Amino acid sequence: MCITLKSTPAKYEKMMEELVPPLFELLKELDSLEQEIFVRNCEMDKEKPALKIPSHLVHPK
Q1: pTM, whole model, 2 decimals?
Q2: Which of 4, 10, 37, 44 has the most Cβ atoms closer than 10 angstroms to its Cβ?
Q3: For the residues of 19-36, what is the DSSP string, one character each?
């Protein structure tokens, strides 16, 4: 993936090259975790009617 940064002053370009890739990897990991949490939450929401849990309450799992 190519990352394009706009308006980066010349004196910060080297720092940007060192900091941005690891930060981008962390953001991708965070996104992956959030997607996993969303899928799990949807699965638990599907179980609520069978367990007679009102939709406004949190699943006890």
Answers
A1: 0.69
A2: 44
A3: HHHHHHHHHHHHHHHHHH
